[in-house]
Amino acid sequence: MKKVGFxxxxxxxxxxxxxxxxxxxxxxxxxxxxDAAEADTVVVNTCGFIDSAKQESIDAILEAAxxxxxxxxxxxxxxxxxxxxxxDELKAEMPEVDAFIGTSQxxxxxxxxxxxxxxxxxxxxxxxxxxxxxxxxxSTPRVLATPSHYAFIKIAEGCDRPCAFCxxxxxxxxxxxxxxxxxxxxxxxxxxxxxKELILVAQDSSRYGEDLDKPDALARLLRELSHTDGIEWVxxxxxYPTHISDGFLDVLAEEPKAVKYLDMPLQHAxxxxxxxxxxxxxxxxxxxxxxxVRRRVPGIAVRTTFISGFPGETEEDFKELLGFVKNVEFDxxxxxxxxxxxxxxxxxxxxxxxxxxxxxxRTALMKEQARISQRNNKTRVGEVVxxxxxxxxxxxxxxxxxxxxxxxxxxxxxxxINDVPDGVLPSVGDFVQVEITEAHEHDLIGRILA
Length: 450
What we know:
Blueprint: E1 3-8, H1 12-27, E2 31-33, E3 41-46, H2 51-69, E4 75-80, H3 81-93, E5 99-101, H4 109-113, E6 150-154, E7 156-157, H5 168-172, E8 176-177, H6 180-192, E9 197-201, H7 217-225, E10 233-236, H8 246-254, E11 261-263, H9 271-276, H10 283-296, E12 301-308, H11 315-328, E13 332-337, H12 355-378, E14 384-392, E15 400-403, E16 415-419, E17 431-439, E18 444-448
Parallel strand pairs: 1-2, 1-3, 3-4, 4-5, 6-9, 9-10, 11-12, 12-13, 16-18
Antiparallel strand pairs: 7-8, 14-15, 14-17, 15-16, 17-18
Helix pairs in contact: 6-7, 7-8, 11-12
């Protein structure tokens, strides 16, 4: 049982956990395979954030169980957030699963994959603030599951925010930062492996270092990583609007390798809904924040996400959100319909919004953002931009693709390339100059210049 296949679901933070588990297994003689049907042991690292993610996780577990029933795999391990959230139910309803490990038990992966271990007797440790201590460091082996030119670095774990819609604190524990030197050392290791772009992730990246009594630590970390030889881009994801410091913005403005990109989920703009969400603020304060960001960092791309249909959201609240989006003209926007999650404060709120209404509001927001995005993209036609070449397009084998610094992988649009000089194709991970020739709602089209 030396061949292990991984199915990793959910966010990049979860992907890092999968990479760490794969690294530990590989270091101890296991072979990692991308084909679960070839594996002796299948590990499903689950997401438990919202209904759609939970269903995807359940489907993946059932598919892995089918492989086991048909004799392809001998052992099935389920890990991650869904285990933290529904450990007792999963153990009772899925006897075909050999082992469950929670988010604080990443280091148990060796034990549960060992054929000599009686996995059904292993406890799933309930995650509480007293047990939420797990953090990987620069000495922890990892097998990168991303393309070779970029990698995620988890700079902190857990969250202490009280957001009413979110179960993450119960699944991931209290907020805890990694040591500064550990992150810098890992960045150097990744650079030596050929990584060109570092993407810093956490449940709340903007609070990095607070628990270590280090003021404005994210700004200091970002500046240090921007001086790493071999690294071309450093990107920060998942920041919180109340913790966007001038020092952090100054680094984005001053350091060429710190990409001019701000990922800052706002969730809403109506004061009424933000109060119900236990986030605070209002449309005016958020507009002032965006204005400050753009003033201090010219050319920055601002990405955000919103929730439509939160309990208590009225048509007036939604119109205020729509007006906010029209006025601010974000560069990137994602919209989720509210998912009523048992165990969160929002679950007990009255005035639930019908799913059809929430979906209608989401569609209206996305249509407005598409208009804004296409209008802004058209202004780029004729520009020459620096692009990280990523190889064949996901849309068509007749096109190639790459990303500007204002485009994060997987969640944003990209630059589709339909022409290369003399047919000489760059290598994946190369930086090229691209002239933008066409604009679409989310993607740009261009040709590589000689």
